[in-house]
Each structure stands twice: as C-alpha cells, then as structure tokens.
Write a structure and sequence with these properties.
CATH superfamily of the largest domain: Catalase core domain
CATH topology of the largest domain: Catalase HpII,  Chain A, domain 1
Largest sheet: 9 strands, antiparallel
Bound molecules: protoporphyrin IX containing FE
Helix content: 25-40%
Order of helices and strands: HHEHEEEHHHEEEEHHEEEHH
Distance between the termini: 66 Å
CATH architecture of the largest domain: Beta Barrel
Number of strands: 11
Shape: globular
Structural class: alpha+beta
Strand order of the largest sheet: 4-3-2-1-10-9-7-6-11
Number of helices: 10
Length: 338
C-alpha cells in the first residue's frame, strides 16, 4: 500500500468516525445556537434589543392555583393548592416587534412560576398544537430556505418548495393556523406546550403528557371582516381592558400519554382520545401599562423545571436552551426591550 492510499484510507476512517460520533451526539448539540439565532435574524430582520423570536410582547402578573388532580399527577409544589405568583408574557410569534395583530399567525404565552424553596418553572407555550420543525437541523434548513437572497432581496419560492417537499413536517403548523380564525384576544386562544413532559407522583410513578392552557369561557375567533376592522394593533389594549374588567383565566390541562404514544416529537400531538386532566387554574391579575415589566429580561428556558416534572427526549426541547441564551445575551447587550 503506498503512502497516498494509506493517507486516503485514514481520512475516510476519520470521516466515518466523526459521522458516527455526530450520530451519537444529541440533536441539540449538533447545531450551533448562534447559527440558529443568526438564521432567525436573516429571516425576520434584526431588531436591536428585542427577542429574536416572540419579539412583540407584553408582561402580565398572574397567579396559579393547582388542584387535587395536579397533586395526584406530580409532587411539584406548583400543585400544592396555594397561590403561586407567575410572571407571564404574551407575545406574537416571530422576530418582528411590529408584527400584525390581525393575521392568522402564532401567539405565545410564556410563564415563570415562582415556587417555594426558590424553585422556578419556566415555559413558553404557543397557539398551535405543533411546532414548525421536528429537529433543530430541520429548523435551520427551513430558515435557510426562507432567507431572502442577498442580491435580489427576494425569497426563492423554488428553494422553499424543495425544502418543504423533502421535510413535510415544516408545513403542519402553517396549515393549522390557516385552518383557524384570527384570535379575538390573547385571552381567547389555546396555548400548547407542544413537547411531552414527565410528571412524577408521590409513589415515584412517572406519567408523560402534553399540556395546553385553555381560556376559561372558551376560545373566540374573528371573522375576516372583523379582523380587518380591528387593525394591526389591538391585542395589548384588548388584554389590558379585559383584565381590568374582570378575571381572565386559563385552565392548565394535561393530556396523558399511553404506552406506545410518541412522546419525543413537537410535530405529533397525542391521539385526540387520550384522557385530559385539569391540574389548576392560571389567573391574570394585571397587565403592564407600557413596554416595561419584569418579563422583559426573563429568558423563558423551557428546561427549567421543578422537582416532580421532567423533560422528555424530544430533540426540540433541549435544542431551545442555548439559542434562548444567545438571544438573551444579544438583547441584554443592546438594551432589552418589551
Ligand atoms: C430549536 C428550536 C427553537 C429555537 C432555536 C427557538 C428560538 C427562540 C428564541 C431565540 C427566542 C427568544 C428568546 C429570548 O430572547 O429570551 C424564542 C422565544 C420563544 N419560543 Fe422558541 N425556539 C425554538 C423552539 C420553540 C418551540 C418548539 C416552541 C414551542 C412551544 C417555542 C416557543 C417559544 C416562545 C413561546 C417564545 C417566547 C418566549 C418569551 O416570551 O420570552 N420555541 N425562541
């Protein structure tokens, strides 16, 4: 064997070893978090000080009271039955702080439960039962396909179609929003956690489930004409008025997985017929009168969980941690807004 072929052989072997190592690495560690945040900026634009996703939002102070069904599911002190203070943030999906309020798109409800013994539970929930990608790699590919060409400043429709044809999961969320009417209010739409989480009871039994925050009194949508008449900026004042006029509350509902259900996917809801339990109620107590408030500098990292609740192996869940930290770092340096 001559020196060249030995070298080539070694190169091939080392490439194979690298690929094998990459396969063994968790999905979240295979995508550079800065690259993901850069991709959000390329698609949405870069707005100094704002979150790179969920940019247009407002803070609210809330209270959560867990119930006996919650205590049966998990030992978490969130379900003790005593009122727990919550720092909430309602927002529009995407990185544009001037996102239109009257279109069929994503709304978010992020929550920080301040639990006894210095425990914190953070979550960022969205108004769709599915996310727009199954893995961080797929999200990066989708964002790359949506990035405008630097010369023409136009998105290449063929590129978008080719990526979506090869990755049909990325269309599920858009199809869901298209099937729904524009929500009448931040207070009148469901917010799903999208990932599965494990709940551990006092006997140590673990039950996986997916949660949704459902408005007490039901959801409400606008007709196309009503949405048009509302204009692009109505959601913040609407929420302030509703909370001033009377209680705005959401039931925390957990749908229970059964053995064999897919619990590692943010694009696959549990089967409809799975049992749902209501584990407590979130009541919005006040809404920030302006763009300030304690939520502005919070990073709603969904892997910050209390004792009694644990992450599933959904690759999208762990993949959120580092990009959120990168986004927070950038906006803190720029001067955090909204
Ligand atoms: C790898 C996948 C994801 C990436 C890279 C990503 C990226 C981001 C970033 C950069 C932020 C802004 C963070 C900050 O500045 O504090 C954010 C916010 C948010 N994301 Fe994600 N995200 C991902 C997956 C998801 C999923 C699966 C959901 C569905 C539940 C979700 C829901 C939210 C919500 C609700 C917010 C707004 C939170 C707030 O008000 O601060 N994200 N995301």
């Amino acid at each position: 064997m001559n020196a060249i072929s030995t070298f080539a052989q070694r190169a091939v072997l080392s490439a194979v070893a690298c690929a094998a190592a990459a396969l063994a690495m968790p999905a979240w560690s295979q995508v550079d978090p800065s690259e993901l945040v850069n991709a959000f900026e390329s698609v949405n634009g870069k707005f100094s000080g704002f979150r790179r996703s969920g940019a247009k939002g407002l803070c609210a102070m809330a209270e959560f009271v867990g119930n006996a069904e919650g205590r049966a599911l998990s030992v978490s002190s969130a379900f003790s039955g005593k009122a727990v203070p919550v720092v909430a943030r309602f927002s529009m999906g995407g990185g544009n702080p001037k996102a239109l309020d009257n279109v069929k798109s994503q709304r978010n409800l992020a929550l920080q439960f301040d639990l006894p013994a210095n425990e914190t539970w953070l979550m960022g929930n969205i108004s769709s039962p599915v996310f727009g990608a199954a893995t961080p790699q797929q999200l990066l590919g989708r964002l790359a396909s949506l990035t405008p060409d630097p010369e023409t400043k136009k998105v290449d429709a063929d590129k978008v179609k080719a990526f979506a044809d090869a990755n049909p999961e990325v269309l599920l969320q858009g199809k869901y929003f298209a099937s729904q009417s524009v929500p009448a209010s931040f207070a009148k739409v469901n917010y799903w956690g999208v990932h599965a989480f494990g709940f551990t009871d006092a006997a140590g039994k673990k039950q996986f489930g997916k949660w949704v925050f459902e408005p007490v009194g039901g959801t409400q949508g606008l007709s196309d004409e009503e949405a048009k008449a509302k204009g692009a900026e109505f959601l913040f004042d609407d929420l302030r008025q509703r909370v001033a006029a009377g209680p705005v509350a959401f039931d925390f509902v957990v749908q229970l997985a059964q053995p064999g259900d897919k619990i590692d996917s943010a694009v696959t809801p549990l089967p409809d017929e799975r049992k749902k339990v209501t584990v407590g109620r979130l009541t919005i107590k006040s809404v920030s009168p302006d763009a300030t408030g304690p939520c502005v500098t919070i990073n709603y990292n969904p892997m910050v969980l209390p004792k009694g609740v644990e992450a599933s192996s959904d690759p999208m869940l762990a993949a959120r941690v580092a990009p959120y930290a990168v986004s927070l770092g950038r906006r803190l340096v720029e001067g955090p807004k909204q």
